Amino acid sequence: MKRSIVTGGIALLPVVLLSGWAFAQSAQVETLRGADVDEPIPLDQIHKNVEGRMQRNYRQQPPLIPHSIEQYQIDVRTNQCLSCHDWSKAGERNAPTLSMTHYLDREGRELDRVAGTRYFCNQCHVPQADAPPLVENVFQPSTGN
């Protein structure tokens, strides 16, 4: 009895696998960007960057980046954001200076350089874009009361 169940299960396995494969091949995949999945599409055609500063949505929101960072290098050895925004260069480059919190280590001690925990700018800051929402957003910013 057990042997016939096992034999039947083994015989049924290829049928199940083939039907699953056929179903997967017939499924239509649609993307949110309006193009085929394998079609390369430049980012600028999807969302336009917005120049100038946008208003923040809530207190303590990291500022959005009001310019393109497409060719910026940010890695362990180089951070091109600091070539304009570091406290020692911001004045001459007419760029906003980093917040002093970026120069504090984990214990709250002041440093002469950007803290390692704040070095990778794009883990908090993103370029601002005129992008339609993917899902409905009912967020209301704080009134400050």
From TrEMBL:
Protein task: Electron transfer subunit of the periplasmic nitrate reductase complex NapAB. Receives electrons from the membrane-anchored tetraheme c-type NapC protein and transfers these to NapA subunit, thus allowing electron flow between membrane and periplasm. Essential for periplasmic nitrate reduction with nitrate as the terminal electron acceptor.
Record has Cytoplasm as a keyword: no
Matching PANTHER family: PERIPLASMIC NITRATE REDUCTASE, ELECTRON TRANSFER SUBUNIT (PTHR38604)
Domain of life from the UniProt record: Bacteria
PTM characteristics: Binds 2 heme C groups per subunit.
Example GO molecular function: metal ion binding
GO CC terms of this entry: periplasmic space
GO biological process assignments: anaerobic respiration
Signal sequence interval, chain numbering: 1-24
Organism: Ruegeria atlantica
Statement: the UniProt record of this protein carries the keyword Transport: yes
Subcellular locations according to the entry: Periplasm
Family, as annotated: Belongs to the NapB family.
Binding site for heme c 2: H102, C121, C124, H125
Main location: periplasm
Keywords attached to this entry: Electron transport, Heme, Iron, Metal-binding, Periplasm, Signal, Transport
Subunit-structure text: Component of the periplasmic nitrate reductase NapAB complex composed of NapA and NapB.
Protein name: Periplasmic nitrate reductase, electron transfer subunit
Pfam families associated with the record: NapB (PF03892)
Binding locations of heme c 1: H67, C81, C84, H85
